[in-house]
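Q: What would this complex look like in 3D?
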Amino acid sequence: MAKNAKQAPSALDDPEYRRGIVELLGLLAYGEISACERLVADAQMAPDLRAKVEVAAMAAAEFGHFEQLRDRLAELGEDPFEAMAPFEEIFARFHAKTKPSDFLEGLVKAYVGDSLASDFYREVAAYLDPETREIVVETMSGTGHSEFVVDQVRSAIEADHRVAGRLALWGRRLMGEALSQAQNVVAERDALSAVIVGGADTPGLDLAAIGRMLTRITEAHTGRMESLGLSA
Amino acid sequence: MAKNAKQAPSALDDPEYRRGIVELLGLLAYGEISACERLVADAQMAPDLRAKVEVAAMAAAEFGHFEQLRDRLAELGEDPFEAMAPFEEIFARFHAKTKPSDFLEGLVKAYVGDSLASDFYREVAAYLDPETREIVVETMSGTGHSEFVVDQVRSAIEADHRVAGRLALWGRRLMGEALSQAQNVVAERDALSAVIVGGADTPGLDLAAIGRMLTRITEAHTGRMESLGLSA
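A: Here is my prediction, written as structure tokens for the whole assembly.
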């Protein structure tokens, strides 16, 4: 794959597009490692070992995604940690503002965050060059543990109906913070924004397109909250 | 493999041996998940993201080992979490008494603990039935990150020679606590002890054999501390 890429002309030959892709991979890689880190911290609140192991498996899946993204950056001749560094603050801010106060909130955060990331990957993938798309599609699969989260949240609500109100508020806060940080990224990173909304063919920032994308992502979020038994 | 095991007579048909094996797998599984958990907690102390990722990779390797052991217990028709439960206290005690005060102490703990576990697996594997041996050998490989630990410890000592004295003390404390908890396990678990010292052929507790095994493990530990630039 990498060999062919060197022979055939590639969208990555365009330095502006390439810069956007490196930023995108850096953003995704940092997001995965930071999700992994938060999941593991939240696992401390698990009520028993079985639940802790479920969360650890989600964290391990995120770590696997991180490794793929890191290796792709290295393949492009980039230092993965340098590519990730610009996004450290964004995620630190997001996590500081969305510290779960119990295990359930941690689970909802993992579920919502993982799903938002998947939606975002899916939105973006269409515009990407084939090599980048392949890696993004491979890591966009989510951690595949939503069943566990849905079960836990639904039975917690069954045991105590007040939980639903609290978690619905929590879901709204998560979504609000995610959107706010996403807007920061878009505002600060022109090359990345260009890649997100139009890839190699649509250079420059298209706010309307970003708006439409965010609307689709918000709608999917609403559907997911409902599947948890929560109003969005 | 499992299919053949059902047809051929197996050491696992002996209920006492089988009980020991289930305890052994439960012990190893709990050890892996608990090492994974501690590593991840210690990763918070990493000086930078690069170091954090190294530690996360070690944790992910431990989690992979845990999954293999858990699946083997399930294959034997056992509830993995029930098999693990008796060892929770042992590891909680060990970790409570060996809380690293900085990142280096965490690294040394991971390295020493991982290596002790490998040595122990290697000692035990020889006595086991083929099916159990296979899984123990697969998970005894260590996390393969000792190079990173050795580098970090050696450069920290180079930068400040006093570090060597502190870490040498720390290594002794780790070994002392590990031995003390190992003795608790042996004292409390007859079936497991029988498996450890002689497998299916030597039922009953042989304290002299355990003593010899501990001597060999201690010697290997001394060699490893020296490779870190520390006196044992």
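A: To summarize the key features: The interface with chain A takes residues 33, 36-37, 40-41, 43-44, 48-50, 52-53, 56-57, 59-60, 63-64, 66-67, 70, 81, 84-85, 88 of chain B (CB under 8 Å). Residues 56 and 98 of chain B are 20 Å apart (CA to CA).
Q: Very helpful, thank you.
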